[in-house]
């Protein structure tokens, strides 16, 4: 009897041990499953699209050289000279767009490198703007930039270049749609004669939303349209048109940079054209890179991604860099070691810098920026 009790107790103990072992085994399986699910969840999350765009240094193009066997800048109707050294146009590459956003893993990885910048998607692609619309806009910016660059360069060389302002494109949901047309030459706004872009924007901005009269020349006939400006997302009144300068050039200058878009190559195009029309090397035969928009009056305007463009310039071998004065806040402290830079406000400032390079004048490390002068 006692033996039977001991055997039953032993059996019960072994059964309890088996149950405990089974429970422990189940807990281990559950923990491992949860860990695995957690890992898979993290992997899935990292592989999911992130609402950002990754920017990085892009290709550089020597405007004095060729691309795909073609001269980037070709001039007919005037004596030209062989370009020496480099006048590099700089670009920024992007990863991410409406059809293909980067993953969270790519975003986190990009943040680990100082040669990348991660930008909110909405800052690159505003709501309601498709990739095709943005491409069309930046392509038009490149076209306008090339026209302005040619005009500024030719005027610098003593040529007379007459100009008018005409409509490049019209927003479909804008106040001007259905009234104004592409290529309409704008003559006046509220009887203010239009000679410069600002003659249009200032009158419309000061309208307070009241109707403005826009006089245009269309098919050699003058027409006037009354249009009520609308408040844009930036708080300014606009009529939904994009305008650009049209020029009568005394000679043929063509610029072909393939599918590169945007206005930031304007300054370097102007310098390159001047170099090709002038004897001697404007850059002293040195490797010069730069960026900045160019306005018809020769003023140099701000651009995006200048820190990345300086990195691209240095990697390509640039010794000197020219950038807009209006980008000084991004230039100061970010010029790559070994590259000398100058911030400029006008084409003449850039030409002065090139003169210093040719003459071997010491280049100040202050960049000519107001905060560091």
- What's the arrangement of strands in the largest beta sheet? 6-1-5-16-19-20
User: What is the structural class?
Assistant: alpha+beta
- For the report, how would you describe the main beta sheet? 6 strands, mixed
Span between termini: 106 Å
Number of strands: 20
- Give the H and E element order: HEEEEEHEHHEEEHEEEEEEHEEEHEHEH
CATH class of the largest domain: Alpha Beta
Shape, per Cα inertia axes? extended
Approximate helicity band: 25-40%
What would the CATH topology of the largest domain be? Ribosomal Protein S5, domain 2
Indicate the low-confidence ranges by residue numbers. none
Strand content: 25-35%
Radius of gyration: 31 Å
Mean pLDDT: 88
Task: Provide the CATH architecture of the largest domain.
Answer: 2-Layer Sandwich
Number of domains: 2
* Tally of helical runs: 9
Structure explained in plain terms:
- The protein is extended and about 120 Å long.
- It has 373 residues and is of the alpha+beta class.
- Strands 6-1-5-16-19-20 form a six-stranded mixed sheet. Strands 9-8-10-11 form a four-stranded antiparallel sheet, covered by helices on one side. Strands 2-3 form a two-stranded antiparallel sheet.
- The protein folds into two domains: 52-130 and 141-159 and 251-372, Ribosomal Protein S5, domain 2; 162-248, PDZ domain (Pdz3 Domain, Roll).
- 36% of the residues lie in helices and 26% in strands.
- The termini are far apart.
- Helix 4 packs parallel to helix 6.
- The chain contains nine helices and 20 strands.
- The mean pLDDT is 88.
């Amino acid at each position: 009897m006692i033996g039977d009790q001991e055997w039953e107790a032993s059996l019960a103990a072994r059964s309890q041990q088996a149950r405990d072992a089974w429970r422990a085994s189940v807990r281990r399986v559950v923990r491992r499953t949860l860990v695995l699910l957690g890992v898979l969840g993290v992997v899935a999350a990292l592989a999911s699209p992130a609402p950002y765009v990754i920017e990085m240094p892009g290709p550089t193009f020597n405007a004095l050289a060729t691309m795909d066997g073609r001269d980037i800048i070709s001039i007919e109707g005037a004596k030209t000279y062989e370009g020496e050294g480099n006048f590099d146009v700089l670009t920024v590459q992007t990863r991410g767009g409406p059809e293909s956003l980067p993953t969270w893993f790519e975003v986190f990885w990009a943040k680990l490198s100082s040669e990348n910048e991660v930008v909110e998607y909405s800052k690159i692609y505003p709501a309601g703007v498709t990739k095709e619309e943005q491409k069309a806009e930046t392509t038009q910016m490149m076209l306008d930039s090339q026209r302005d660059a040619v005009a500024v360069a030719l005027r610098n060389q003593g040529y007379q270049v007459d100009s008018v302002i005409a409509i490049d494109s019209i927003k479909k949901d804008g106040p001007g749609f259905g009234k104004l047309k592409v290529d309409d030459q704008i003559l006046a706004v509220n009887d203010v004669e239009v000679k410069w872009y600002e003659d249009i924007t200032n009158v419309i901005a000061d309208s307070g939303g009241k109707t403005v009269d826009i006089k245009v020349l269309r098919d050699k006939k003058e027409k006037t349209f009354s249009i009520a400006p609308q408040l844009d997302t930036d708080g300014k009144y606009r009529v939904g048109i994009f305008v650009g300068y049209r020029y009568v050039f005394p000679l043929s200058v063509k610029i072909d940079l393939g599918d590169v878009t945007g206005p930031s190559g304007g300054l370097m195009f102007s310098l390159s054209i001047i170099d090709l029309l002038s004897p001697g090397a404007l850059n002293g035969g040195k490797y010069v890179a730069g960026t900045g928009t160019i306005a018809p009056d020769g003023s140099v305007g701000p651009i995006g991604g200048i820190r990345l463009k300086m990195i691209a310039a240095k990697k390509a071998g640039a010794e000197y860099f020219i950038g807009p004065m209006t980008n000084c806040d991004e230039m100061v402290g970010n010029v790559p070691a070994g590259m000398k830079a100058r911030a400029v406000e006008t084409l003449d400032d850039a030409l002065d810098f090139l003169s210093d390079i040719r003459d071997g004048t010491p280049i100040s490390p202050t960049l000519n920026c107001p905060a560091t002068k």
